[in-house]
Amino acid sequence: MYPNDGFRELERQECLRLLARTPVGRIVHTRHALPAVLPVNFGLDHDDAVLLRTSADSELVFAIDGTVVAFEADEVDAVTHSGWSVVVTGSAAVVTDPAEHERLIRTGPSSWAPSLDEVFVRIEPELVTGRELIGGRTMYGVDLSS
């Protein structure tokens, strides 16, 4: 029997399925040459691109438009010591096509902090990774979870 560190790697489609049921994640970007993390609500577009809706003049839009970012979402159960985490890495860009913007107004996520002039930011998923914490650990058949 092999050691079990309690984690299981998730396949891309499983990662996207988990993201689709989660309303909040964290965008990781560079701010003033330092790493920055910001919680945001989001949705998925075409079942794989992460989609944010925010103020057109927000600091976030200026920081991430045209850059590579990471986006992370997770779900953790502290009682059972289980959960999952998914990270999407890819290029972020403001949606500029008027027809696409109109479609996203109807189908995209709503902003939890609405403003008068909102834009959509799409993160194209170049890399999608995830891990599931399976609760409890064993090594060579010995339960290490207690």
Automatic annotation (TrEMBL):
It holds the Pfam family Pyridox_ox_2. This is Pyridoxamine 5'-phosphate oxidase family protein. It comes from the Bacteria. The lineage of its organism: Bacteria, Bacillati, Actinomycetota, Actinomycetes, Kitasatosporales.
